[in-house]
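Reposting from the mailing list since nobody answered there.

I have sequence plus structure tokens for a pair of proteins and want to know whether others read the tokens the same way I do. The first protein:
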Amino acid sequence: MHTATARRTAASPSAVRETLECRPEAAAHARHLTSTFLEGLRPAPDQGAADAVMLVVSELVTNAVRHSGGRFCSLRVSADPDAITIAVGDASRVPPHRRTPDVRGETGGFGWPMISGMATATTVSEEPGGKTVTAVIARRGRVSGRATAPTPS
């Protein structure tokens, strides 16, 4: 069930909001919505920023599906001239945390360090009935998840 659609309003000219069922296909739907949103941004974010946004959306929604225990999660992606903000809400009050990555690929542990390394800021907010994890990605000056100095014009 996808209960909301991408919307652009005067109060929030560059945002997409969606409520997703916590099912395995939720991450794919979130990536599709985010990709469409990014394609519509003017000016477009640089490729490193767009890649980072897609990875963060995928990771946060996947974690909500796997770990929240709730039936639904929410996705909000918004943009301003300098950054793209991703916020994923879910029913769990347990915040993400660093843990030893499982190199065998069975239990994960790579996502939160990856998100923290790509984002200029991350926050976890308690909400009624759960939490929202927010990550901010710079629209320019990121290559392969690392901040870079702007190139001279």
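The second protein, same order (residues first, tokens after):
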Amino acid sequence: MLTMYPACFYKEDDGYSVIFPDLNYLATCGKDLNEAMEMAIDCLAGYAFDCQLEGEKLPKASKIESIDAKAIGKELDPEASCEDCFVNMVSVEVESYAREHFDKPIRKSLTIPAWLNKTATELGINFSQTLKEALMDKIYPKAQINKMK
């Protein structure tokens, strides 16, 4: 499912700052507009994915026309000029983004007793899958893992 939120983009001396007013002023930045948009997508995906893991509901997104980037900029920094700012929708398909960026497999070494290796191999146990399941059980309650499948 596509997740979309309005974001305020502020031109800075060294790039752009990005703020999501609907997400507790979640913020990121980039050295240019292209990188700022990429970082905004990553930031939104990470926030939404974390909410899924924690079983939290995302707040409703505001309509883009209801967001006043200058007013928000002044609220955050009364001294800022906020002349070069705009609001843009940022969207991401969280599930596919998470699979590509957050769920990438990483190779790990494992040391176990020889007898355990022999027995598990004889039983056809998949070491990677078993370790992943054991770690997920330690980190997250079963109910949340089942929601992610």
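Reply #1 (J.P.):
I read it the same way you do. The chain is about 45% helix and 20% strand.
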